[in-house]
Specification:
single chain, 242 residues, mainly alpha, 10 helices, 79% helix, globular, TM_pro_TauE-like, cell membrane, Probable membrane transporter protein, transport
Amino acid sequence: MTPADWAALAVIFFAASCLQAGIGFGMGMLAAPFIALIDPALLPATVIIMSILLTSIVTVAEKDSLDLRGAGWALVGRVPGSVAGALLVTVMAPAVLSWVVVATVVTGVVFSLRGWAPKVTRWSQIVAGAASGVMGTTTSIGGAPMAIIWQGSDSARLRGTLSAFLLVGSIISFGLLLAFGAVAPQTWTVVLWMVPVVLLGFVASRFITPHLDKTRTKRLALGASLLGCALLVATQLVQLLG
C-alpha cells in the first residue's frame, strides 16, 4: 500500500473507533466500505480484529451498565449465524452479500424511524443475534440488528451491552474465518499499525458520550446504520463501474 493508503486507513479507523466507542457499534459500517476500496482482501478480518480490541475496552469501561441476560440470549443466535456467515463467505459473491445486508438494515431502520420498536423478548434477541452473526462474519457490519432491537436502551446500557455482545461475537467470527482460511497475510501488518489509532479513537469518544442521552443515541445509532448502508452501496457501485 502507498503512504496515502496508510494515511486514509488511519483516518478511517480513528473515526470508526470513535463512533463505535460512542454508541456501541459502527466500526464495520463506517470503515468497511472505505477499506474495500483500498484493499478488499483486508475484509472482514481486519475490522473484526480491531473490533475485538475496542469492544474489550468499552465493555470494561461500561461494565456497570451491562445487560448480561440480553447479551446472552443474543449470543445464542450469534453462534449459528456466524457459522452460516463463514460458509456464505466461501460460496457467495461479496456483491450479493452486500446487497442483502443493505436491504435488511434499511428495512429495519425505516420501520424504526416510522415508530416501530420491536419488542425485546428472548426470541427477538436470538433472531437479531443470528442476523448479526451472518452480517458481521460476511461484511463486518454486525451491529445494526442489535442496535435496532435495543434502540430503547439508554446510551450507557446500549454501549456496554452491544460491546459485550460484539466482543464475544467478533471472537467467534474471527475464529471461524481463521478456520476457513479467510484471513489475508497483510491483515496482521495493518492491525499492528492501527492499534494506536483505535486507542486514540476510544479516548476521543470519551468527550462525546457525556452528551448522548437516550434520544440522541437512538438517532445516532439509526443514522449510523443508514450511513453504513449508503457507503456499502457506494462501494459496490464504484467496483461495478470500475
